[in-house]
């Protein structure tokens, strides 16, 4: 029996599309739009991308039991 070695190099991304950020955070896109308390980064070409570190800080704050900093803003966005 022969064997083979496969080497896979993966370059992690720091900036994510909205759908990728939602998946990363375990939320649907609609829930992510409403709940995420941080804005996307606007790139020079107009693309809006979400910083992985912002996602991590948000999740960490939820784990720490910190209240959402913009609860009123979230409620207002739900009514849109």
List the helices and strands and how they pair.
Layout: E1 15-16, H1 18-25, H2 29-35, E2 41-42, E3 48-51, H3 52-63, H4 71-78
Antiparallel strand pairs: 1-3, 2-3
Helix pairs in contact: 1-2
Spatial gap, N to C terminus: 63 Å
What is the mean pLDDT?
A: 88
Helix coverage percent: 40-55%
List low-pLDDT spans: none
Write the element-wise H/E pattern from the N-terminal end onward.
Answer: EHHEEHH
Tell me about the biggest sheet? 3 strands, antiparallel
Radius of gyration: 17 Å
Shape: elongated
> How many helices in DSSP terms?
4
Question: If strands are numbered along the chain, what order do they take across the biggest sheet?
Answer: 1-3-2
Number of strands: 3
Description:
The chain has 80 residues and is mostly helical. It has a domain at 15-64. It is built from four helices and three strands; from the N terminus they run E-H-H-E-E-H-H. The protein has helices at residues 18-25, 29-35, 52-63, 71-78; strands at residues 15-16, 41-42, 48-51. It has a three-stranded antiparallel beta sheet with strand order 1-3-2. Strand 2 (41-42) and strand 3 (48-51) form a beta hairpin. Helix 1 (18-25) crosses helix 2. The longest helix has 12 residues, at 52-63. The chain is elongated and about 65 Å long. It starts with 14 loop residues before the first strand and ends with a helix. The model has no long low-confidence stretch (mean pLDDT 88).
């Amino acid at each position: 029996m022969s064997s083979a070695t496969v080497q896979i190099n993966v370059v992690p991304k720091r900036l994510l599309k909205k759908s990728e950020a939602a998946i990363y955070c375990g939320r649907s896109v609609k829930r992510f739009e409403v709940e995420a308390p941080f804005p996307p980064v606007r790139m020079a070409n107009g693309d809006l991308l979400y910083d992985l570190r912002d996602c991590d800080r948000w999740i960490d704050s939820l784990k720490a039991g910190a209240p959402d900093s913009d609860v009123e803003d979230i409620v207002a966005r739900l009514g849109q």
